[in-house]
Amino acid sequence: QGKQKKARKYAVMKRMISLRDERIKEKDRAKAPAKKEEDPSAIKEREVPQHPSCLFFQYNTQLGPPYHILVDTNFINFSIKAKLDLVQSMMDCLYAKCIPCITDCVMGEIEKLGQKYRVALRIAKDPRFERLPCMHKGTYADDCLVQRVTQHKCYIVATVDKELKRRIRKIPGVPIMYISRHRYNIERMPDDYGAPRF
């Protein structure tokens, strides 16, 4: 019979005794952190996020024509694949004037994609697009869009990315524009208690 080969385990650490273990002598043992006693007369502070005044339940009063639409990188790419004119298709979807907005992060993301996405870059540099400067660190476009939409509720987010859609659905009062069947569609926010629909 042949010898059975044992698979070598990677990243196996030696087990070490913690400094608070009873097996270590009393003088060498680490002391547990002392708990601070709470003062019952002290005022307890809680930070509660302030709800925006523009929301009437799920209905967003800041949304109205001309609509400002935050465009994601993949939305431009899918529009090119579906052979859709970005601004015209937005107007056909919403029946109103639309101003597509593009952040520095999204622009940087398109530029990083290189020669393959040169058509998307040319569309993004269209003078009809409003350019929004980014003041934060890093260039992750999804975080940038979520942060901007959380602060200002006056935008509609245009994206095809499932993960970004999932994150934006958690923010009340922000509609999502997406592409299906070679045309733009919009996800409406549910209206509570018969509130007027967007």
UniProtKB/TrEMBL annotation:
It is found in: Nucleus, Nucleolus. Keywords: Nucleus, Ribosome biogenesis, rRNA processing. Residues 22-44 are annotated as: Disordered. One of its GO terms (cellular component) is small-subunit processome. It holds the Pfam family Fcf1. The keyword rRNA processing applies. GO terms for biological process: ribosomal small subunit biogenesis; rRNA processing. It comes from the Eukaryota. Residues 67-166 form the PIN domain. Part of the small subunit (SSU) processome, first precursor of the small eukaryotic ribosomal subunit. During the assembly of the SSU processome in the nucleolus, many ribosome biogenesis factors, an RNA chaperone and ribosomal proteins associate with the nascent pre-rRNA and work in concert to generate RNA folding, modifications, rearrangements and cleavage as well as targeted degradation of pre-ribosomal RNA by the RNA exosome. PANTHER family: RRNA-PROCESSING PROTEIN UTP23 HOMOLOG. Belongs to the UTP23/FCF1 family. FCF1 subfamily. Part of the small subunit (SSU) processome, composed of more than 70 proteins and the RNA chaperone small nucleolar RNA (snoRNA) U3. This is rRNA-processing protein FCF1 homolog. It comes from Eulacestoma nigropectus. The lineage of its organism: Eukaryota, Metazoa, Chordata, Craniata, Vertebrata. The gene is Fcf1.
